[in-house]
C-alpha cells in the first residue's frame, strides 16, 4: 500500500464514529476523497456522496451510475446515567459484546461545553472490575446496565463537568501494524469500507485524467447508521437511484480456533476478498466482479448469504423497484472487538476489483436480469 494511502486509512481509523455520531469520520473521509471527486454532497443525516463523471467535461445525461458504498459508523456505547459518586452507566450502540468491556480503557465524546464555549471533546475513562480477591463466589459477567465507567472523580458534579447523558463512548484502541501486512485496529468495521471506495475513486480519477473515458458515472458513498439497521443506506439509495450498487463491508475470517467452518464457511485472512452469493447479490454484478478479479489475477473467496448479507446491501437492493446490488468483503478476524485484524493485501485487492468493475463496464453492458 502506498504510504499516502496508508496514512489516509490511519486518519479514518483514528476518528470515533459510533452510529448516529458519524460526523468526525465523514469529515475525515470527505477531506480524503474530495480531491478525487467532481462534486460532493451530504444529506440531512450525514450520508455523503463524492461523484466522478465519465469525462472531465462534466455530467453525461446518458451515463449510468455505479455507486460504491461503505458505512461510516462503528459499534460503541452511549451514556445513560451518572451516579452520585461520579460513575457512569451506559448502554450499547450496535453489536457491542458485554464480555469484552471489563478492564478496558474507553474514550467519551463529550458534548459538555468548556470555558471557551466549545465541547470538551475526548474524555478518557476506564471500565473496571473488582479484584478477583474481593469477589465472593464465582465471578459473573455483568449485564450492560451494571457496567460502570470510572472517570477518576468522586462526585456527580465533577462527572457533569466532563460528560453528560447522551455522550457516545468507544474503545480507546488504535491502529497498529501487528506483523508484516497484518494490521490491528478498533473499527476496521467499516471504515476500511470507506477507505476502499475512496481509493477506488482516486484510481478511477487518475485513469480518467490520463485520457480514459469511464463507462459510467461513479458515486462513492459514505452511509450512516448501518450498525443499527441500515437507515442511512435506505435514505441515500432512494435519492441517488444508481443503476448498480457495490457495497464494501467486512466479513468474518473463519481461520481461527473455535469457528465451525461447516456453519460459517472457510474464509481466510490474506487469501483475497470474499464475494457474497445469494439473496441481495445480483447475478449480473457477481459475474462482472468475478471477471474483473480474474482478469487481474485476484483470487476470490466466497461467502454464502442465503437470506441476508447483514450489510447496507440489504437496505439498498429493495429501493426504487430494485437496484442491482452486490457485496464485496475483505476478511476480518475478531469482528466487533477492539482488536480487529485485517491483511493489507486483501484491502488493496478489494480496491482493484472495484476499479476493474468500473473500468471494464461498457455503456451497453447488461446490469439487470433479463427474463
Written description of the protein model:
The chain is of the alpha+beta class. Helices cover 26% and strands 26% of the residues. It contains 9 helices and 19 strands. The chain has helices at 3-14, 23-33, 156-160, 188-209, 231-240, 261-264, 283-295, 313-316, 344-360; strands at 39-42, 48-52, 65-71, 76-82, 88-93, 104-113, 119-127, 148-150, 168-171, 176-179, 182-185, 217-223, 244-248, 251-252, 274-277, 301-304, 325-329, 331-332, 340-343. Strands 1-2-12-3-13-17-15-16 form an 8-stranded mixed sheet, with helices on both faces. Strands 4-5-8-7-6-9 form a 6-stranded antiparallel beta barrel. Helix 7 links the parallel strand 15 and strand 16. The longest helix is centred in the middle third of the chain and has 22 residues, at 188-209. The two termini are 43 Å apart. The model has no long low-confidence stretch (mean pLDDT 95).
Task: Characterize this entry briefly.
This protein is α+β, with helices and mostly antiparallel strands and 371 residues long. Helices cover 26% and strands 26% of the residues.
End-to-end distance:
43 Å
Strand content: 25-35%
- Could you give the order of strands across the largest sheet? 1-2-12-3-13-17-15-16
Biggest sheet character: 8 strands, mixed
Amino acid at each position: 500500500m502506498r504510504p499516502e494511502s496508508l496514512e489516509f486509512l490511519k486518519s479514518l481509523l483514528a476518528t470515533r464514529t459510533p452510529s448516529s455520531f458519524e460526523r468526525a469520520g465523514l469529515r475525515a473521509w470527505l477531506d480524503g476523497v474530495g480531491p478525487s471527486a467532481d462534486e460532493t454532497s451530504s444529506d440531512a443525516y450525514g450520508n455523503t456522496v463524492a461523484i466522478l463523471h465519465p469525462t472531465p467535461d462534466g455530467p453525461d445525461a446518458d451515463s449510468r451510475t455505479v455507486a460504491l458504498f461503505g458505512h461510516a459508523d462503528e459499534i460503541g456505547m452511549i451514556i445513560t446515567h451518572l451516579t452520585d459518586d461520579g460513575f457512569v452507566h451506559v448502554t450499547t450502540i450496535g453489536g457491542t459484546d458485554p464480555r469484552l468491556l471489563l478492564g478496558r480503557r474507553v474514550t467519551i465524546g463529550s458534548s459538555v461545553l468548556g470555558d471557551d464555549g466549545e465541547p470538551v471533546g475526548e474524555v478518557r475513562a476506564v471500565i473496571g472490575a473488582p479484584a478477583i480477591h474481593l469477589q465472593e463466589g464465582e465471578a459473573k459477567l455483568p449485564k450492560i446496565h451494571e457496567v460502570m465507567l470510572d472517570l477518576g472523580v468522586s462526585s456527580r458534579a465533577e462527572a457533569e463537568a466532563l460528560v453528560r447523558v447522551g455522550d457516545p463512548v468507544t474503545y480507546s484502541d488504535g491502529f497498529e501494524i501487528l506483523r508484516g501486512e497484518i494490521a490491528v485496529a478498533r473499527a476496521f468495521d467499516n471504515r476500511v469500507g470507506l477507505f476502499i471506495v475512496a481509493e477506488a475513486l482516486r484510481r478511477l480519477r487518475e485513469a480518467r485524467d490520463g485520457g480514459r473515458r469511464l463507462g459510467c458515472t461513479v458515486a462513492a458513498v459514505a452511509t450512516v447508521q448501518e450498525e443499527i439497521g441500515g437507515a442511512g443506506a435506505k435514505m441515500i439509495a432512494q435519492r441517488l437511484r444508481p443503476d448498480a450498487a457495490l457495497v464494501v463491508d467486512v466479513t468474518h475470517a473463519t481461520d481461527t480456533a473455535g469457528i465451525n467452518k461447516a456453519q460459517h464457511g472457510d474464509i481466510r485472512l490474506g487469501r483475497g476478498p470474499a464475494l457474497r452469493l445469494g439473496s441481495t447479490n445480483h447475478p449480473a454484478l457477481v459475474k462482472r466482479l468475478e471477471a474483473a478479479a480474474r482478469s487481474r489475477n485476484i483470487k476470490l473467496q466466497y461467502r454464502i448469504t442465503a437470506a441476508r448479507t447483514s450489510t447496507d446491501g440489504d437496505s439498498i437492493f429493495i429501493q426504487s423497484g430494485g437496484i442491482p446490488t452486490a457485496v464485496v468483503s475483505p476478511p476480518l478476524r475478531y469482528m466487533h472487538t477492539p482488536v480487529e485484524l485485517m491483511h493489507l493485501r486483501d484491502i488493496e485487492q478489494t480496491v482493484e476489483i472495484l476499479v476493474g468493475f468500473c473500468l471494464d463496464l461498457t455503456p451497453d453492458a447488461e446490469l439487470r436480469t433479463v427474463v
